[in-house]
Amino acid sequence: MTSTLVKETASPPCTDHAERARRSRRRARLGAVLFVFPALLLLGALVVYPVLFSMGRSLFDASGNHFVGADNYTEMFRDPATLKAVRNTAIWVVVAPTLLTGLGLVLAVLVEKVRWATAFKLLMFMPMAVSFLAAGIIFRLAYDEDPSKGVLNAAIVSVHDTFESPSEYPTARAREGHGLTSGSDGSYRTSRRVSPGTAVDFGMVGLAPGDLPAGARPAYPAANQTAAADEVSGVVYLDFTPGGGGEQGKVDSKESGLPKMRVEAVGADGKTAASTTTASDGSFRLSGLKPGSYTVKLPSSNFAQPYQGLSWLGPALVTPAIIGAYLWIWTGFAMVLIGAGLAALPRDALEAARMDGANEWQIFRRITVPLLAPVLTVVFVTLVINVMKVFDLVYIIAPGPVQEDATVLATQMWLVSFGGGNNQGLGSALGVLLLLLVVPAMVFNVRRFRRSQR
Question: Which CATH number fits domain 173-303: 1.10.3470, 2.60.40, 2.40.350, 2.40.50?
């Protein structure tokens, strides 16, 4: 009886304590909800609602008034432009994250070996501070086909011209009707065959006197030279007299010779029997010719247009060129993340491998890379997600005529919806497709992050 009374009098304090604990937990939950509510509101307004609206809008036609079901999705895969966007997106997903992860890994390992590692990382990471708009404008200028504007083609042309001299006379042409004809390959030749012991003059036009090579001399003294019995001689000159006057087809006293012009004698069999280069006064002598008839020819190489480099923004190279710009921006990001993982590796394993006689390549391939596999996977998947959403660089760098050749799903979605297509039903279907492609990579990344936390 007494013990029962004790139990009854002792139980209310325990009940009060449990009730206070429940109230405290409820207040904590309410406080947490109130604290998170603004973020949840923004998430719903900026993410959840647009996603649900796009899913619903994708089931209606361009006007948004008629329900068409899955027609937009079937039309999406019948449209050649959309198929090209899917193909380009696949190229981006395969190439860009792979190159970035590889470059980031190599740079992160090499940076550990240099003294100014922090400064190097800062320089590599600096492009991340540049907006995609600014980066697109920078690379649009860098990829310009004109070497006087595009820095890449300027460098390529400089290297090319170092090993192969450009033509001196890209704009020159023969004066028609004076014994010369043009060939289908851009060369010029005598309209009649000539025999050794003959003199032949080539009058050229299309070249301003101020554009003559340095050291060009008057052609008139050389025009009266005689040819030996086994040679064909002559002069190649600018058939234009400064100030006017003179006679077409004849070398006048004020007309200049064209030096460094290649001249060939072509036999009846079509083979070159002799060749030479004109002197500073434009004169030439094709010696050692056998008896017979020959065609004197100025090869097309004399008139070749200057090398202009590569068409970076043409249909063939525009996608690799834009991927190059993307690599410039994101390589520092990959390097810094992988470098952080590299700094956390157990040094005893690396030192033990070195003591066992392993070289640096074996350590890198068999120890460093396997230990960094989780970090490399996270970096790769993060870049895959980012690559699927790329829009700015493609839209800014690719010129209008090749926009369709460079388009990806994000740009195609914008073009179909707002860039002239005005079909927001089809554009919403493309947006849903892009969401479906991104979600698996996001889920994979989140699960891997949770496993690493545990």
Answer: 2.60.40
CATH classification code of 71-157+312-453 = 1.10.3720.10
Count CB atoms within 10 A of the CB of residue 22. 10
Q: Would you give per-residue pLDDT tens digits along the chain (454 residues)?
A: 444 444 444 455 567 777 777 877 888 788 778 888 888 888 888 888 888 898 888 888 888 888 888 888 888 888 888 889 999 999 999 999 999 999 999 998 888 877 787 888 888 888 888 888 899 999 999 999 888 889 999 999 988 888 877 788 888 888 877 778 888 888 888 888 888 888 888 888 888 777 788 888 888 888 877 888 889 998 998 888 876 677 787 888 888 889 989 999 998 888 899 999 999 989 999 998 888 889 999 998 888 888 888 899 999 999 999 999 999 999 999 998 998 888 888 878 778 888 877 888 888 888 888 888 888 988 998 899 899 889 999 999 998 888 889 999 999 998 888 877 788 888 888 888 888 888 888 888 778 777 766 6
